Amino acid sequence: MPLPERNYVADALRAETVGGVLLLVAAVAALIWANTLGGSYEAVRGLHIGPASLGLDLSLQHWAANGLLAIFFFVAGIELKRELVAGELRDRKAAALPVVAALCGMATPAVVYFTVNALGGGSLRGWAVPTATDIAFALAVLAVIGTSLPSALRAFLLTLAVVDDLFAILIIAIFFTSKINFLALGFAAVGLMVFYLLLRRGVRGWYVYLPLAAVIWALMENSGVHATIAGVAMGLMLRCHRRDGETQSPGEHIEHLVRPLSAGLAVPLFALFSAGVSISGGAVHDVFTRPETLGVVLGLIVGKSLGIFGGTWFTARFTRAELNPDLRWPDVFAVASLAGIGFTVSLLIGELAFAKDLVLADEIKASVLIGSLLAALFAGILLKIRNNKYRRLCDEEERDEDQDGIPDIYELDKPEYHLRMAEILEAKAAEHRRLAEVASGARAGDDGPA
């Protein structure tokens, strides 16, 4: 492909909307393939490739879940590092609400799942399935619908989702690691230390880091710890603040290069090989009647919404943490509902939780798909309502019916002017301060290796 076209495709893949659409297309393709030519679908995703002598004779489905998703978590690690040094997580006061929201948004779905299955006699192994939020999918929905929503809304969702991903990784590492090869894990730790030292010394060149990253990943895969942990660990090691004379930090530069690979290849292929489940009328009925699958659906739709909104409200009500002045509580509830899209990581956790029961694993995947779809539809309606309100405020501020070049809002009598401007300006007053704080944070001191 010629360079201009290649650059155009790469830039498109960096857009959250495009990445979310590709993810959705891959999931739909998997469902169609699995429900029309199910035999060929199972044969392809069960095909084993890789050197058995290195412990890497894995199925295509396994390569997608453990290998390609490591790229996705590498990008997530960079995003988390950037938030820690120059974003919402840098300021403890500003970070308190999204961090507490993320924690409550993971705990409440787990409680919902546990309650449903304890009362219904179902398996408790899937408690972690509804705890995760899909960053790409959620941000894509927000980008498509929220054209006039305040930027603080996206910042809140991004910070919440990044923290959510971090704890999802910890859940995978702690609860879904059954047998550990300490020798391989030790060598992986040594590899990560070498990776860090090379970054610290300013060594450059993909030919150095790419083979080293592959070795670290292979060692982590053989250790018994989920291999995606290697991706997020390397992402967190990159420097994400800018030094004098730099237009981009190393972390920003590498994220810029790797994100198209993550959004255009890694995540869609994972969805293609993981989302293909047989869905019939009976299967859909089972999703809403079987305790394990019902617990996942209710966890994503009800648990996420109540957990995130409730955690945010109680923290703002009983601590010194404050909601961003640009946001209103209906905005927070819409974002809380949007976080119920648990697609990518929820599918992964579902595979790990029910690896020994393939039939139930497929039903859990179906419940993740249905729960995420319902959450997206519900959140989309709420966001559309909020988006229309903000658009009306913007139109009101810019309206100039007499065509004199001065918006009509500035030509009203003083009492009416103040009344009309209050609502508009209140929604925008703190944005400049927040942007200034973020900009100053991006120029802050060193936070790690070069």
Mean pLDDT: 82
Q: Taking strands numbered 1, 2, ... along the chain, how are they ordered across the largest sheet?
A: 1-2
State the major sheet. 2 strands, antiparallel
Total number of β-strand segments? 2
Structural category: mainly alpha
Spatial gap, N to C terminus? 33 Å
Shape: globular
Number of domains: 2
Would you give the CATH topology of the largest domain?
Na+/H+ antiporter like fold
Poorly predicted parts? none
Global Rg: 23 Å
Beta-strand content estimate: under 5%
Please count the helical segments: 18
CATH class of the largest domain, anyone?
A: Mainly Alpha
> Considering the protein shown, what is the CATH homologous superfamily of the largest domain?
Na+/H+ antiporter like domain
SSE string, helix = H, strand = E?
HHHEEHHHHHHHHHHHHHHH
CATH architecture field of the largest domain: Up-down Bundle
Approximately how much helix is present in the residues? Answer: over 70%
Give structural notes.
This protein is an all-alpha fold and 450 residues long. The chain folds into two domains: 343 residues, Na+/H+ antiporter like fold (Up-down Bundle); 48 residues, no CATH class. The protein contains 18 helices and two strands. It has a two-stranded antiparallel ribbon with strand order 1-2. Strand 1 and strand 2 form a beta hairpin. Helix 2 runs parallel beside helix 11, helix 4 packs antiparallel against helix 11 and helix 5 packs across helix 7.
